[in-house]
Design goal:
alpha+beta; six-stranded antiparallel sheet; globular
Length: 163
């Protein structure tokens, strides 16, 4: 069964995964499957989230797991309007996952491909807005310090239209 991403997900959907119900496959990267989900708290409040479910072969790798956990803990310390908020980090069914804020919008990579295919330039104002907002988020992350005033040392190593 393929879903919105056009790819076949690893998991049958919908599927309960801890406190999340995964109901739409958004995509797949080199290390994880990405799902749209609804998370529910112990008291019954719920919200949409994106769950990045790390592929089994990486979840079982202790070194990779430690790196991912460290990066997710750093990401959870960030709170900025141009950075997706990290809600949750855990392990369920022996798979690592990160749950993040769902931000409704469009896929910039897809938009750029359509513009190229149709030979239509991206409007300058839109391009400048995208670059400006991206740089604001990156600047915040790069300057972020821990509680003792020491730099967190965050560097985003995968800035791209799809991210």
């Amino acid at each position: 069964m393929s879903t919105a991403s056009g790819e076949t997900p690893e998991l049958e959907l919908p599927r309960r995964f801890g406190r999340y119900v995964l109901f739409d496959h958004i995509g797949r990267g080199g290390m994880a499957e990405i799902y749209l989900a609804r998370g529910t708290t112990q008291m019954g409040a719920s919200r949409l989230a994106v769950v990045k479910l790390v592929l089994s072969r990486f979840s079982e790798d202790a070194e990779f797991s430690q790196m991912l956990v460290s990066e997710a803990k750093l990401a959870a310390r960030l709170s900025h309007r141009n950075i997706v908020q990290t809600f949750d980090l855990g392990r369920e069914e022996n798979r690592l996952y990160i749950a993040m804020e769902y931000v409704e919008g469009f896929d910039l990579g897809g938009l750029l491909r359509r513009c190229t295919k149709n030979k239509i330039p991206l409007p300058l104002e839109l391009a400048l807005t995208i670059v400006t907002q991206t740089l604001r988020g990156l600047d915040y992350a790069h300057r972020r310090e821990d509680d003792d005033g020491k730099p967190l040392g965050i560097v985003h190593r995968d800035v791209s239209p799809s991210n």
